[in-house]
Amino acid sequence: MNELDWLFAQQRFGMHPGLERVRALLARLDSPQRGFQTVLVGGTNGKGSTAASLAAMLTASGTRTGLFTSPHLTRFSERFVVGGQECPAPQIEEALGQVRPHAEAVGATFFEIVTALGALLFAEAGVEVAVMEVGLGGRLDATNALEPVLSVITTVALDHTEILGETLEAIAAEKAGILRPGRPAVTGVPPALWPQLEGQGAALWALGREVQVEARSQGWAGWTLRVELPGAALDLQTPLLGEHGAANAALAAAAAWRLGVGEAAIRAGAAGVVWPGRLEVVPWRGGRVLLDGAHNPAGAQALAAALRSLGAAPLPLVFGASSGKDVAGVASALREVAAEVILTRARLSPRALSPQELAPHFTGLPVRFAGSPAEALALLPPGGSAAVCGSLYLIGEVRPLLLGLPGEAPEERERWQ
After folding, report:
1. Which of 7, 167, 264, 375 is a Cys-bridge partner for 370, taking CB atoms 3.0 to 4.6 Å apart?
2. For the chain, give me the number of helices (H) and strands (E)?
3. How many CB atoms lie within 10 A of CB 248?
C-alpha cells in the first residue's frame, strides 16, 4: 500500500472534531506552520472561491502563496497549490511519508493528516502566506490549529446541523471560532449574525457595512463590479458567476486590501482566478454545461438565482447527491429552473444515493435515470445549455468527461472527505 492509499484508508475512521490531535501532529513535525503567515477562510458556501480569489491576488502581488482547499475534484494534488501550480505528486508522496508515522502515533484523522501535510508542503516550498480553506465549521476544524493573521467567514447557512447546531446563530458561533481578538477579519454574513462574530473581538469588516459592492453587469464571462472599502474604491472583473460570485470576489478584495495588497494586484487576481466545478462554464457539443457543486439548499438557491439572472432557465439538470444531505431542500430550490432532471450517481463516492432514491424529490418533473455520469451526459440534447449539480464528487467525475483531457481521469479511490 503506497502512502496515498494508506491516507485514503483513514477515511473509514470518520471525523472526530477537536484540535488536540492535529496540534500534537504539527508539533511532532517541528511546527511547519510557523514558517509562514496563515489566512483562514470559512463559511457554509463560497469559501473555496473566496480563498482561490484571495490567493490569486496575493500571487499577483509577488507574494509566494499557498492555497489549501478541499475536497478535490479529480486529483488529490489540487488541494495543495503554490504560486498557482499544484504541488507535484512525488513531492506530496514524499511529504506524506514524513507525516505518516507521526499521524499514526497520535491517531490523527484523515483531514487532520491532510491539513498537517499542507502545512509541511507549504513550509518546504518557502510559502510566505498560506490561504487555508476551513473544512467543516471552524472552532474545532483542523485548520484552526494554525494561527491566522486574518480570517474570512463568507456565509452562514444550515448545513452539517448534526455537528454544528440546528440554528444559524449556533452555526455562526462555531464558524466564529476561526476569528482572533484584535486581528482583522472580513465577513459576508447578514447583519443579524454580526454580533455572533463581533463577540470574538476581531477587527471585523462586514459586507454591507465597511465593504460595499455594486455589481454592474453579468454575463457568461462573469461580473464587472465596483468594491468600496475604507480608503479604496476598486473596479474589478471576475469570472465568478452569480450574485454570490460577486460577493465572494468583494470579500477576497477586502481581505487582500487588509493584507496590504495593492489595487493592481487585486484587479489582476480577481480577473485571473480559476475555480473549477463551482458555477464553471464548459463548452460542450455546440452549447455549454454549467458545473456547480452546490450540495445544500443555500447553495442550490444561489445556483438557481444565477441561472435565472443569466437567462438560462429552465434547462436540463444532471443531478446526483450524497446521503446525509438535505436533498429535499436542494431539489426544492432547483425545481423552478429544471426543464428535466437526469438522475445519476458518482461512481467513487460510497455515500452517493441511487437515481431511484433521488427520484421522489423531483415528482412532477420529467425525470430520467442514468447509470453513470457518462450515460447522463449522453442524454443531454446538443447545442443548448445544461447544468450538472448536487455533489462535488459528481462534478469531479463529469468535468474530465466534458474536457476530454488525457490524464484527467479521476483518481480511482473511493472518497467522502
Report:
1. 375
2. 15, 17
3. 34
- Is residue 46 within 8 Å of residue 85, measured between CB atoms? no
pLDDT digits (tens, 9 = 90+) for 329-339: 999 999 999 99
Spatial CB neighbours of 258, under 8 Å, sequence gap ≥ 6: 150, 184, 186, 205
Tell me: the pLDDT tens digits for 180-207?
A: 999 999 999 999 999 989 989 999 999 9
Rounded Cα gap, residues 334 and 299, in angstroms: 10
What pLDDT score was predicted for residue 406?
52
Assess whether pLDDT exceeds 80 at residue 256.
yes
CATH number at residue 10: 3.40.1190.10
In degrees and rounded to multiples of 5, residue 100 shows phi and psi of -55, -55
Rounded to whole angstroms, how far apart are CA atoms 21 and 19? 6
Q: How many residues does the chain have?
A: 417
| CA 187 to each of CA 118, 199, 274: distance values in angstroms, whole numbers, following the listed order | 25, 14, 22
Distance in angstroms (rounded) separating the CA atoms of residues 261 and 58: 7
* Domain match, 24 and 147 both: yes
Domain end call among 223, 257, 272 = 272
**HSE-CB for 224 with a 13 A CA cutoff:** 3
Average pLDDT over residues 356-374: 96
**Residue 2 pLDDT:** 87
Domain end among 272, 305, 335 = 272
pLDDT for position 408: 47
- Residue 86's CB is within 10 A of a number of other CB atoms, namely 17
Of 1, 16, 32, the residue nearest 99 (C-alpha): 32
The total of structural domains in the chain comes to: 2
- Higher-confidence residue of 25 and 44: namely 25
Q: Kindly state whether residue 412 falls inside one of the protein's structural domains.
A: no
221 and 294 share a domain?
A: no
Domain that holds residue 388: 278-403
